[in-house]
Amino acid sequence: MVKVANKYAKALFDVSLDTNNLEVINEQFEIINQAVSDNIKNLEMVDSNPTQTAQDRRNLIDNVFVDVNPYIKNMLYVLADNRHIALVSDVFNAFQGFYNKYYNQDYATIESTYELSQEELDKIINLITQQTKLSKVIVDTKINPDLIGGFRVKVGTTVLDGSVRNDLVQLQRKFKRAN
Predict the structure, then answer these.
(1) Among 6, 57, 67, 173, which residue has the least CB neighbours within 10 Å?
(2) Edge to edge, what strands does the sheet with 136-143 contain?
(3) pLDDT tens, position by position, 22-65
(4) 1-101 maps to which CATH number?
(5) What is residue 178's predicted lDDT score, i.e. its pLDDT?
(6) What CA–CA distance (Å, rounded) separates 141 from 157?
(7) 3-class DSSP assignment, residue 75
(8) This prediction's pTM
(9) What element of type H or E holds 153?
(10) Alpha-helix residue ranges (DSSP H) falling in the chain
């Protein structure tokens, strides 16, 4: 289903660029995603209900998403017509991927054993931008006592691990190879 979601997202992203609506569509789509994220199971039931016609599903879109950008609404209609309404969060995530790539930005999760100061965060963000060549990093921080000390950063599929726990694991591997 990821391929399907990517196709919808790419179409919406392309039209948002072509019509100079990228920021508006991104903003509204984020709100929609937050609103539906707890209702995916209900949307799956709507998609799989054989008594629901395409028009019934379109009416649902009209009733729930009243003042939505017409390009988003059209995409939601296409999802409804193809019984893919439950993919709206997957489509949003794929759209965010295109959006972030366009602006050369990405989300980063910084894990540490304690709450980092702004100065420490700034240093880590600077390290992330140097390592990833991103223009902007959108940061989420988490406390992870399992790290023992240091920090770990996840950006997409990239992990920068400067934790004491990682150092201990690496040291343990070296000792095993030496035996």
Answers:
(1) 67
(2) 136-143, 105-112, 151-155, 158-161
(3) 999 999 999 999 999 999 999 999 999 999 999 999 999 999 99
(4) 1.10.520.20
(5) 61
(6) 17
(7) helix
(8) 0.78
(9) strand 151-155
(10) 2-18, 22-36, 40-48, 54-64, 70-81, 88-102, 118-132, 164-178
